[in-house]
Write a structure and sequence with these properties.
alpha+beta; 4-stranded antiparallel β-sheet; 32 strands; 15% helix
Length: 408
């Protein structure tokens, strides 16, 4: 029988393995403990934040954004003795936030608009309610007594602005009068009011085998195309300017400003650009530098950043690496707050609303900063909206509620 001799260092090797395994276990336990501690701290922060806020509607499991939207609608309708009511939608599309359909009752409890719509618009002065359902392609104008304001049901429709509305039926998009008579028929894939005071409408041209189309232009109420459909996006830059974004032959996105005579305001094209606020617009030049430009086309302040979200209330809201910063007109950093990119950036792109900025913290939750950079509401919410009329909807752990600015 052959005897196999073990190497002299076998016991030492086994001992080292045991030590390594023990170290791994200790590290794993420490990491779990640290994680548990952070979760506990987050729980305490959430409880403290919730306790210190003024809740118009406390957190409820079944209270959703659509319920908040209905309550806001009701505030307007109730001024005139009407009430919005809802029913649960059948065969709800998982990709759509609207799980309820809405209708309208009068003071006597009579249904004047059936609950088949996602969105309702009341125009008391003109005497109609517009119901829209973008899933079933139904849009109808009702009189306030429940009869037809316009007899025809459309696939798509908009509220009337300055005496006209855009609608879509089987024949395409039109501009109509309150009588239902067609003011303008226009061959396009989409049509909506751009500046109703000036009688201007933005349109999307038709696709042609997926090669041509999907570009935007501007047409007036008489059907004159004032801006050809060459643009990927068209925005109001301010009361006197239009901002357009387009793709060059080199497949590079560029932006330019037009006046309302549809002449270029500045000869320069920008890599990115945003609307003017208080006479200044954030622009990113071809050399990849951001700055604030005045109405003469002069960049009066260069700003070093990776993302430029908005300019409002005298502060540029920018991203610098892992920090969200507020930069004043002197170039001074007013605040520097750790944040996480992505998610719901509506708050960042809108800027300060009622003195508060919605942001996403490093923990992936949403909170609010004031103009001094003080975190006045800690980032504890799974989702939230900017404040409007002193209120906003927030969501946490599958529960929704409405908070106010009282006490902030």
């Amino acid at each position: 029988m052959e005897i196999v001799e073990l190497p002299e260092n076998t016991s030492t090797f086994t001992k080292q393995k045991k030590i390594t395994l023990l170290v791994i276990i200790v590290i794993a336990v420490l990491l779990l403990g640290i994680k548990a501690y952070h979760l506990y701290q987050q729980k305490l922060l959430l409880e403290e934040t919730i306790a210190n806020l003024d809740w118009e509607i406390p957190l409820e499991k079944d209270f959703e954004f659509t319920d908040w939207r209905q309550l806001k609608q009701n505030e307007e309708f109730q001024k005139y003795g009407l009430r919005v009511f809802s029913v649960y939608a059948e065969d709800k599309d998982e990709d759509n936030i609207f799980d309820k359909l809405y209708g309208v009752m009068n003071e006597q409890g009579e249904i004047i608009v059936p609950a088949i719509y996602w969105h309702l618009t009341l125009n008391w002065d003109m005497g109609y309610i517009l119901g829209e359902n973008w899933d079933t392609y139904q849009a109808h104008y009702y009189s306030l007594d429940g009869k037809d304001f316009i007899a025809k049901t459309f696939k798509d429709a908009s509220p009337f602005e300055n005496g006209y509305a855009t609608v879509e039926d089987e024949a395409g998009y039109h501009i109509i009068e309150p009588s239902g008579n067609v003011k303008l028929r226009f061959d396009c894939d989409y049509l909506s009011a751009f500046d109703s005071n000036r009688g201007l409408y933005e349109f999307e041209d038709k696709y042609d085998n997926g090669i041509i189309g999907g570009k935007w232009g501007i047409v007036d109420i008489n059907g004159r195309v004032l801006l050809d459909a060459h643009y990927d996006m068209i925005h109001k830059a301010d009361e006197d300017k239009i901002l357009v974004t387009y793709e060059t032959k080199s497949i590079i996105q560029e932006s330019q400003y037009f006046d309302y005579d549809f002449n270029l305001v500045f000869q320069e094209s920008f890599d990115e650009a945003k609307p003017f606020t208080d006479g200044l617009a954030p622009v990113k030049r071809i050399d990849d530098t951001w700055g604030l430009m005045n109405e003469k086309g002069e960049v009066v302040q260069k700003i070093s950043c990776s993302d430029f979200y908005s300019y409002s209330e005298g502060l540029a809201i920018v991203g610098r690496g892992n920090y969200l910063c507020g930069i004043n007109k002197k170039g001074e950093t007013v605040f520097k707050e750790p944040y996480e990119e992505g998610g719901n950036i509506t708050g960042l792109t809108k800027g300060f609303q009622e003195g508060l900025l919605l942001f996403r913290g490093k923990n992936g939750k949403y909170g609010y900063i004031d103009r001094n950079g003080d975190v006045v509401i800690s980032p504890v919410f799974d989702d939230a909206d900017p404040f409007e009329d002193g209120k906003t909807f927030v969501e946490v752990n599958g529960q929704g509620g409405v908070i106010t600015r009282n006490g902030i």
